[in-house]
Amino acid sequence: MAKITLEHLAHSYLPNPKAPDDFALKELNHDWSDGEAYALLGSSGCGKSTLLNIISGLLIPSQGRVLFDGHDVTTAPTAKRNIAQVFQFPVVYDTMTVRQNLAFPLKNRGMDVAEIKRRVQKVGAMIDMEAQLDHKARGLTADAKQKISLGRGMVREDVNALLFDEPLTVIDPHMKWELRTQLKKLHHDFGHTMIYVTHDQTEALTFADKVVVMYDGRVVQIGTPQELFERPGHTFVGYFIGSPGMNLFDAEINGTSARIGGAVVELGAHYAATGKTQVGVRPEFIRIASEGDGIPAKVQRIEDVGRHQVVRLDAAGTSVSAVIAEGQTIPADADRIRFVTEGINVYADDWRVTARKDAA
Amino acid sequence: MNKTVNQKAWFLILPVLILVAFSAVIPLMTVVNYSVQDTFGNNQFFWAGLDWFKDMLESDRMWNALGRQLMFSGIILAIEVPLGIFVALNMPQKGFWSSFCLVVMSLPLLIPWNVVGTIWQIFGRVDIGLLGYTLDALGIDYNYTQDSFDAWATVIVMDVWHWTSLVALLAFAGLRSIPDAYYQAAKIDQASRWAVFRYIELPKMAGVLMIAILLRFMDSFMIYTEPFVLTGGGPGNATTFLSIDLVKMALGQFDLGPAAAFSLMYFLTILAISWVFYTVMTTLDKRDGK
Questions:
Q1: What is the mean pLDDT of chain B?
Q2: Do B190 and A108 touch (CB under 8 A)?
Q3: Cβ contacts (< 8 Å) between A166 and chain B: which residues?
Q4: Interface pTM, i.e. ipTM
Q5: Which residue from A23, A314, A350, B140 lies 20 to 30 Å from B117 (Cα-Cα)?
Q6: CATH classification of A247-353 is 2.40.50.140, yes or no?
Q7: Euclidean distance between CA atoms B162 and B111, whole angstroms
């Protein structure tokens, strides 16, 4: 196990990258703490897999360094880094049995037979495949194969990190939940550093201690699930995390208040924002009212999604979502919305602006 | 499922039936006809029963030709399959050089059989051929028209030159279909180059290799033109394979009865072997498809 440090890391698939747009992964500095479970979240093509492959050594970055516990491994081959990786599609050695599959990474490292046997048995139990150890790997279901892929990573007890590249893509929904739970348990029991790439926010938020959100080749926010929810650092995080995503209003920021369309909204703190300024409010912090002040909005439809209801509104051309409790009704004459003050975030050019405490 | 009963639909397959009748059934039946009759000329035939089959089964000539045939097919498979895999493994994976290699390797496949025979016939000549002359100049006693071993070697090298590309192209196609993740996983598992071949590449190529072996076996088992042009079956009968022998018998000696019996047995052998291959291949597919 190891701490993984990325220094000025960037990667381009072009031979002579110049403009920032040439980079699939834009410059990045980050420490992955030893023993933590991270999720790398972002939509397809945002550079998640590129970053993962750089860490595992399948890709050499165009610039910057990768350090494992302070040792530079930037150009070290995968085999030297002692990491395990599980891929999107299950990789098993078809002609081998499950047992031979699990033993394969150990055998290649020249470990003695008794020790291999002990570990394979243990991992077989971990992934719940003891009964199938002597079956041929070919012909097993996709989730069984993916469990074998995972097992081949787990069987090496001293790995520096376990990397997962959207490992549950081909797994049935009910198995997804079970495998994710097993992964969490394995992390809890063995404390490996885990990096889990996904585009599914539920997977990311339930699996990880810390979520790294990537957008367009850049890390836009690193935080706990709660931080990502309450204080999205970038409008993309607001939009991508949460269901439905955060509402954004074009606004003119004047110190402690914002003008949205014709209405003025108190922000509860002082902000100095320039450029393209927006106010972001999660649907959970929007209240629908029929009197008093607020932004004019027309209710368009209500969706019952089970535990709560989602109200879709139209505020002068901006579509807005609000979440209300199950069973709650909205007045027939509801024609405006208000924000709960602690749920307000201010953005300038898509990046969150922190409130200034001193001025008023 | 409810099927609509419509007997008139049979008429729809009539064109195919007629086509197949003229292209295969009728010609084959004339052969069957010859195989059970004898003639002393004048276009007068009389019934001979299964005598010709019996004769052929007892004839050393046919068994020897079959022996040579099996040896030939065995040798060329033993060379072309591993060599083809080796070439495929070492070809550039993508880009200009990959396309270049594919085109260059396809060239021998496009040359007509008799031209291949002619090329090697001249190539091997000691007086004017590059190969024959060079070997002779190096002091190697080489003469494919006189020496059985030299004739065999030349026929085999010719076949390897002509057909290894086919195996290589098929193997290459099989290799290209392996997702990168397999190689990456193998790297992470610290698999050796041999293990990658043994446990990833070979199993993934199994399907196309079966096809390659089938094609090469059938083709070599029926080979005629190339050795006929090159050696004419000689020296003596050294390179007289089944087809060459059959033609000699049917057209050279005009022994239509024995030749017809011979060709029917030849045909049934090929049919049987094809069936075995087909069964093995579909079983493999089913097992992989699960």
A1: 87
A2: yes
A3: none
A4: 0.72
A5: B140
A6: yes
A7: 8
